[in-house]
Specification:
single chain; 131 residues; alpha+beta; Double Stranded RNA Binding Domain; four-stranded mixed beta sheet; two-stranded antiparallel sheet; 2 helices; 6 strands
């Protein structure tokens, strides 16, 4: 990575275990796709008044050549589950981006409709086409 990993934790205590977990997840992404230029991870516990448990939001911004991949996952009560879901989504998006770079994505040509004019209708230039 050209720009060092940036980790931001808001609304909850920052822990070494949480940061180490995030670094491991980013390292796995880099093993999978080595063209990652930057990565920012934001873990947030918003101050919402809810009747149920506290929900974590995880946002991941990944800079790749010519684009940026953004993942935003909300509403997991366990920060590690929220991170897992967010990094799984990031990996799927990186896979899609890598396929586009390699040219593996198919582009389908539009299908041409071929028909024959069988009669001209009385209202202006309308035709009945039989396929």
């Amino acid at each position: 990575m050209q720009i060092p990993l940036q980790i931001t934790v808001r609304g909850t205590d920052r822990s070494e275990a949480l940061e180490a977990h995030i670094r491991d997840k980013v390292d796995k992404l880099e093993e999978f796709f080595d063209h990652i230029m930057s990565c920012r991870v934001v873990v947030e516990l918003p101050h919402k008044h809810q009747h149920q448990g506290k929900h974590f939001n995880v946002r991941i911004d990944i800079g790749v050549p010519g684009s940026e991949i953004v993942v935003n996952r909300e509403h997991s009560e366990d920060v590690y589950v929220a991170l897992r879901d967010a990094f799984d989504a990031a990996q799927r998006k990186i896979e899609d981006y890598a396929r586009k770079l390699r040219g593996d994505v198919k582009t389908h040509e539009p299908k041409m409709r071929v028909g024959e004019i069988v009669e001209e209708m009385s209202e202006g230039n309308r035709f009945q086409i039989e396929t």
